[in-house]
Amino acid sequence: MPELDSSVKNVVNETLAPMGRSQIRIFAEKFAKIPGLIKLTLGEPDFNVPEHVKNAAIESIKENKSHYSDQTGFLSLRKAISGYLDKQFDLQYDPATEIIVTIGATEAIFDSLAAIINPGDKVIIPTPTFALYIPIVKILGGIPVQVNTTADGFRLTGKKLEEVIEEEGPDKVKALMLNFPGNPTGFVYSQAQLQELVDVVKDKNMFVISDEIYAELTYGHKHISLAKLLPGKTLLINGLSKSHAMTGYRIGYVAGPKDFITQAGKMHAFTVTAPSNPAQFAAQEALENGIDDPVAMKKVYQERRDYLVEQLNNLGYETKTPEGAFYTFSKIPEKFHLTSIEFADKLATEGLVGVTPGVAFGEGGEGHFRISYASSMEDIKEAMKRLRKFTESL
C-alpha cells in the first residue's frame, strides 16, 4: 500500500483540505456501527424501483445501447423531461437546448453554481437546508451567506431577503439557493410566498437555483415551481432519486434559459462527459410511463408522517407537520441543555435510535433533529417506543 510522499503532503487544494465530509453521512455511518440501532438518518426511499423502470435499464443493456450518449443526455430522455415538466408543472423547456441530464441532482447543483460564481461572489442560503450547498459554494470560491429562517417557520420571507441583499451588497450577491419541499424541514412555499421572493429578485442581477427534487412528494396540495413565476432567472433542479426511489441510478437534471445551460453544460462536459446509458433509459421510462408511480409511495409516507408528528409532539418534541418530502424536524426541549450533536449522540448510544442533528443543515438547524421516515412503519414505531424511554430517562 503506497504511503503519501512527505514532499507532497502539503500540495493540496487549500479550500478543500479543511472541509469535513457531509455531517449527514458522518452520523449515518457512525450510528450504523451501534448494534441494534434503528437508523432514521438517511433520506433514501425504502421502496424498490418500479419493475417497468428496472426492465427498461435491463433491455437497454441487452440491446447493446452501450455507446456514448450526447453529453447533455440522450435527446429522447431530455424530451421526456420536457414533457414531464410541462404536464406536471406547466413549465416549457426546449429539450434540445434548455436541459442537461446530470449525475444526480448534486451534479446539477454543482454545475449551476460553477457557471455563476467567481471568487468572492456571494450566494444566499436559507437554513436549515440541504447540507451540500454550503461546501460547494466554498469550493468554487464563493461566499455562502446563511440566513436563519427558524423564526419565520423555516421559510425565507421577501422582507428578509431584501435586507440580506442590501447588507451583503447587491453587486456581490449572485444567487439565491432555494430547496422546497425542504430538506430537513419538509416545508413548502405557497405561490404568494414565492411571489414575495420573485418581487425582490426580479430586478436584481442574480439567479435563483431552485432545488425541487421533492416536488412529487407533497401532501394535500400540488407543487408550484418557482420557475413558473420567474423563468428567465430560475435554474430548476430535479431528478428521479426521490420520486421513483432511484437514488443509486444517479439521474438528475437542470433546466433553464438556453444561454445559461450552454455555460453549465461546459462544466458538465468537463467533469462527467455523459451520464450512464442504462440509468438514462430507466429514467426515460419512469417519466414517460411512470408518472403515477410516486402516488402509492406518497400515501405510505403520509401515514408515517402523521404517526410520527403525533408521537413526537406527545413526547414534548415540538414538531410542525411537514407539507412535503419525508422528514420531520423537531425541536429539542431546552430543559435538556443539549446541543443537537450531543442529543443525537446520546439518543444513539443510550436510546439506540439514529437521527441527524439539526446543525448538519446549517446554522439555522441547531436545537433541532431530523428524522427520515423513509423507513418501515415497524421501525418507526419501535423507534418511538425507544424515544419515549430515552426521554423519560432524561
TrEMBL record:
Tree of life domain: Bacteria
Pfam families assigned: Aminotran_1_2 (PF00155)
EC number: 2.6.1.-
Signal peptide: none
SUPFAM superfamilies: PLP-dependent transferases
PROSITE patterns attached to this UniProt entry: AA_TRANSFER_CLASS_1
GO molecular function, one term: transaminase activity
InterPro entries: Aminotransferase_I/II_large, AspAT/PAT-like, NHTrfase_class1_PyrdxlP-BS, PyrdxlP-dep_Trfase, PyrdxlP-dep_Trfase_major, PyrdxlP-dep_Trfase_small
Biological process, per Gene Ontology: amino acid metabolic process
Protein name from the UniProt record: Aminotransferase
Biological source species: Companilactobacillus halodurans
